Structure formats: structure tokens, C-alpha cells
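Fresh eyes needed here. Kindly weigh in on this sequence plus C-alpha cells:
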Amino acid sequence: MPVKKIFSNQLALRKRIDDLNGMLKTMEQQKSELQAVLQIIEDWSEDLRTVDRTNLGVPYIRAVKQLLAKQRVALSSRKSDFNRRIANLKQAEVPFTEDLSQLIQLLRKDVTSVVRDQRKYSARSVENIRQLQGRVIGTCSAILAVYYEE
């Protein structure tokens, strides 16, 4: 094999390694964004799980509204850390981010309706929000397990 061909193959291999390292760095950043989103939703879910409840197991409205008001700010504000991370994942075209975005839209809608309208509050509405949070957690975990092999 001529030296010139060896040299050109070596350069092509180095370029391929650099490209793969760039892809790896990008995927690691996407993975950390997704892990941060997962942690935020898990924290929110845990907060709702541990909220004070009546003897019948119904969460007190004041405690729930205070928690959901904080979540609503993070879900609604375009400048929030949570929404910035979701936008980064969408822009990077991570698989299933459309499904994740739809779930987050549903969560945003339910949280907003409970916070804004006291008549919408019920134990069922709180459990629906917890269920949506669980679906978001499951989707994020599945993406991490399949796409990032975590």
C-alpha cells in the first residue's frame, strides 16, 4: 500500500474521530438537559405526593394551589429553566420530544386551570396532574434508556 494512501486514510480516520467526538459531546449535553427535566418533574411529583391531606385523603386546596402556582410559573414562562431545557431538546430533535411536548402542554393546561379557577379543584384534578407528571417521567426515562442507553 502506498504511503500517500496510508496518509489520506489516516487523515480521513482522524476527521471521522473528530466528528464522532463532536456528536458525543452534543449527545451528552442533550442527555444532561433531559436528566434535568426529569429531576424537575420528579421533584414536582414528590411535592404533590407529600402535600398535607384531610382525613379523607383529599389534599388541602391552599397547599396544592401554592405548589401548583410555582409549577405554573415554570411551565408558562418562556424564560424559565424548565422551558429553556425543553426548547433545547426540541431544537436538537431528540426522539419523542414531540410526545414529551404534548404531555407538558396537557400538564400546563391542567395546572393552570386548577390555579386560576377554584371550581376546577378536586382530588381528581390533583391526581390527574400527578398522572400526567408520571407520564412525563416515564417518557423521559424511556428516552434516556433507549436513546442514551442509560
User: Anything to note?
Assistant: Helices lie at 3-49, 61-76, 81-91, 97-116, 123-147. The two ends are 42 Å apart (CA to CA). The chain has five helices and no strands.
